[in-house]
Amino acid sequence: MPTKNITGTTQQASATPARTWVTIALCFMVALLEGWDLQAPGIAAQGMTAVFGLDQMAIGWVFSIGIFGLLPGALMGGRLADKFGRKILLIMAVAIFGLFSVATVYAWNLSTLLIARLLTGIGLGMALPNLIALTSEAVGERMRGFAVSLMYCGVPLGAALAATVGIAGFEETWKIVFIVGGITPLMIIPMLAFYLPESAAFQSQRNQSGQSEASATAWRNLFSDGMAAPTLMLWSSYFFTLFVVYMLINWLPSLLVEQGMTSADASWVMFSFQIGAVVGTLALGALIGRLPAMALAVLIYLGIFSALIALALAGQLTSMMTAGFMVGLFATGGQCVLYALAPMFYHTRLRATGVGTAVAVGRLGAMGGPLVAGQMLAVGAGTVGVMVATGPGILIAGCAVFKLLKGISPTGTEGNQEAFSTISANGKG
């Protein structure tokens, strides 16, 4: 018999524990592959530079064009998922980023390389809002943050696995990382088609209101009924946090090589970075709602800034690996907190749109990070200068996350909206 959940939508009894764990496991698998493909350009940078004769600005564009593709991908993936369903959009996304990751290997000049990376990014962008929506809607409200954290730790873990290709030092590393990152997603599509259940919350919402009554007004609804403040705060925190994270994912291996490290040693630092990200994703995600808002915001963003300074000043492989671990713990772990927060503020009918829009805005920061770093390096700012320049953005993101955490209510999504509106009206937080 249908039952009402705390967000006001009807969920079917078919949302069993087995169905829940199958959803989380399959979404984790896709997140693992997404992490691999997001890290792939950083690992392949030296090889692509040699093959295509790229300078720092050109390789910066290779990094950023893929991240730019994440933006329209996230917007389309979120909005279309609220209209047609999370499952079908996720399968389409996996097919797109798998195909064009393989196509990267067959690029014959810079232009075709950029096109392949752009289309790969569109597929990756389409996937993430649906991974978050499927996972968050598969569990109860109290478990939502932990479930999203558990799923999302697949992203840094996949990136760590990609780094092992660089550690191994294969002759054609740059090709291998893209081939594995492309063929594996294509191989799991049948598994997603047969075993991934559609979100019960989405099915109930569609049964109640037809083909998503909110589809035509979804974006407008992100700023109505007290939602403008949390939406803008989410956008700010996503933008500046992803600015730092993607600058590191893309530029750190090249920066370390330029400082005299071997490619294998640089890959070890990236491996440490991604292992720290796995630990941070699980640990910081588990602290949502348990630590006071100020304590968690300060922990994340002071930790990011301190770890970046430590990484810039480290001189030995051991100290660089330690600093890299801490950067991954706080930067990617903080990013996971954002992904866990977003579903808490949006109703089922526009959850994928809300999450997708926030992810898209974050991708603007992710695109800007590598470009700004490339420009600063080109004018001689150096590694320390790049790291210090992230300070203002980290401060803004920390303040936004604090405000969002103050708005969380244990009563569920509608309660979170009401609590946030009250805080905003009273000028508190």
Automatic annotation (TrEMBL):
A family per Pfam: MFS_1
Membrane topology: Multi-pass membrane protein
Transmembrane segments: 21-38, 58-76, 88-108, 114-134, 146-170, 176-196, 232-249, 269-288, 295-314, 320-342, 354-373, 379-402
Assigned keywords, A-Z: Membrane, Transmembrane, Transmembrane helix
InterPro entries according to UniProt: MFS, MFS_dom, MFS_trans_sf, Sugar_transporter_CS
GO terms, molecular function: carboxylic acid transmembrane transporter activity
Entry's localization field: Membrane
Major facilitator superfamily (MFS) profile domain boundaries: 23-409
Main location: membrane
A Gene Ontology term for the protein's cellular component: plasma membrane
Name of the protein: 3-(3-hydroxy-phenyl)propionate transporter MhpT
The organism of origin for this protein: Halomonas binhaiensis
